[in-house]
Amino acid sequence: MSSAPHHEGAESPAQALGPMSAGEVASALGLTTAAISAMATRLEAGGYARREMDPKDRRRVLLHASPAGLQQVYDFFEGLYQASIKLYAAYDERDVRMLVELLGRFRQLISDHTAGLRGAPARIYHDGG
Predict the structure, then answer these.
(1) Where are the domains of the chain?
(2) What values do phi and psi take at 23, rounded to 5?
(3) Cα gap 129→96, rounded to integer Å
(4) Tens digits of per-residue pLDDT, 8-26?
């Protein structure tokens, strides 16, 4: 789909999640659908995204990252990606497992706290393990 550089085993969130509705993007980012709609208009005008009717539900519009949008993400994060590889190499497998567990617990803590502030049920995250 894109001429963006590919890092083995790594894909951008836009690729991993695929096309999303404005409501899905709003929920994921904690923003309103109006804010996402305005953002989508700017991204579309810049050639970084496009809107298409959902083939399964013509009432719904899906946001797609364009190849130029994906390239922009890769270019923006390339330095961080390379530095992360070097940082990761300094830890053994046991250390990495402990860090993943700690970060997972922090993520759950933040989710619980945020849900409490909003008065909504907490979302359960799984570390994939």
Answers:
(1) 13-89, 91-124
(2) -65, -40
(3) 13
(4) 555 655 566 678 999 898 8
